[in-house]
Design a protein that fits this description.
9 helices; 8-stranded mixed sheet; homodimer
Amino acid sequence: MKTLLTAFFVTSLIAVAADIRRDEPKKPLVLESQGSFFVGGEKKAVNAPTPNGGTVESSITVNQMYVQYQTPPGGDKHAPVVMVHGCCLSSKTWETTPDGRMGWNEYFVRKGRPVYLADQVSRARSGFDPTKINAVKAGTLPPSELPQVLAASHQVAWSVFRFGPKFGTPFSDGQFPIEAVDELYKQMIPDLNSLLPNPNPTWTNMAALAVKRHGAVLMGHSESGFFPEQAALIDPSGVKGIISIEMPCVTNFAAPQLATLAKIPTLVMFGDHLGDVTGGPANWLTSYQGCETFVHQVNNSGGDADDVSAEDGN
Amino acid sequence: MKTLLTAFFVTSLIAVAADIRRDEPKKPLVLESQGSFFVGGEKKAVNAPTPNGGTVESSITVNQMYVQYQTPPGGDKHAPVVMVHGCCLSSKTWETTPDGRMGWNEYFVRKGRPVYLADQVSRARSGFDPTKINAVKAGTLPPSELPQVLAASHQVAWSVFRFGPKFGTPFSDGQFPIEAVDELYKQMIPDLNSLLPNPNPTWTNMAALAVKRHGAVLMGHSESGFFPEQAALIDPSGVKGIISIEMPCVTNFAAPQLATLAKIPTLVMFGDHLGDVTGGPANWLTSYQGCETFVHQVNNSGGDADDVSAEDGN
């Protein structure tokens, strides 16, 4: 199973890379079904203002996760793939590329896989809990209680995505369509994850979605790269596979946790230029080395994990 | 053109109503193309914190509008429909219904229409400008400068959507699947429109999208119900039709503005029980009466506008 999974995804990646700037006519896309729904969510009591200046106890829903799905004909032959985006992004990140090419969502559907795109809890169509911001505005909480809103600047994005050694200077061998970088910057939206309780409800909701679908491959990227593992540690029963893309790995799991993860085929993926960008908030070479350690730990526990890095010529 | 438009949408509404709780097998959905992109967006200078406690001038992008589209085969025979959601919602509102039926987005695509779903600027996948929140947290702005974050409570949603005379008591003739109301509450996400400049960038971006598509029908609902008209007053050149659903109308436009709107076929739609819910933030009967006045004003300027209300048996 793992070998197949690895082969499929590496082949996909190569194909996606080969697709770059090729503008061939596409066949119509046929879908068995599509739609959207929410996973999780809890009722929370809030004091809402009334027209006469008082407040009235009301309820809002928080911690729900928005999911959009597409299933191709015959898609039930395969476990669906759940894609979760990174910091300061939404599931837009899996759709049409900044220069207008097909995104991974449609690419996987055209390869026969049902695809589920999730917006992280507290981001995009999942919404966020506004009660702290409103309490600070009302004067019942101090400004220090406001969330730390992460807004990835163009400069931070350039560094974190490793477009080049310094802002505005791309690597000569880069495959990102740098002429369309302004379109990527429009995907960068404020990140309110600092509002979230522990464990992160996105992890819980990913595990619940995998159960609801009677099994799913969970995929995360960057901020969410290790969310599939965290979801599996909450409830592994629906997690049929894990794809973790470019993130720091946890390397101090206890034996029972590693035993749980060892039962799930796992693919860890990194791109190139891991050590060639300095000064940004990420240290990708260190992250990759940590993930190599994690992969060894999983395999030493009887697991089936692999890491792939473009740096190694994979 | 207007008569056709009216006939199509009224037929659609009746068909959607008839669809309720009918669970017939659906044919596969065939798409000529799908994807997502952004309209608009401007670069804004911000001071980002550095690891040594200082700040560095950086840039973020604000006021962009996320748009997701699907085009059926032969869809270029029709002007696309751009759907914009209301307060405290995202474009989820046009997708799968709370009880799992097909949403208006797919319904229109299956009727041969290209559909564009926009998230309003400052909402969902369009992101928002976080600089005021961060400045208050940093102590450089007072808490009073925080945006008024609108969080529609369950109680407010019940009243605004007119599910019944009081919270928890539905109308006996309601068509909303009240057993699934908790799923609707999950769609209600914080509304940061108070952060927006004037004119609202969503209006500007809707007008620009209509131009980009060489003509489009603009549709808004509730908070955004009058956005199509506002977009047309910024640039009418791409606006081939307007559908305004349940909102207050502006009734004091000057003659040149009415002359602009009079050139665009316009349909204004309201549901039932307009006067049967009191105490909430909306007064729907007053809104409907104002819109009747607006429709008369447009028609007196030589226009082709119509209003439809389920209250009138339409």
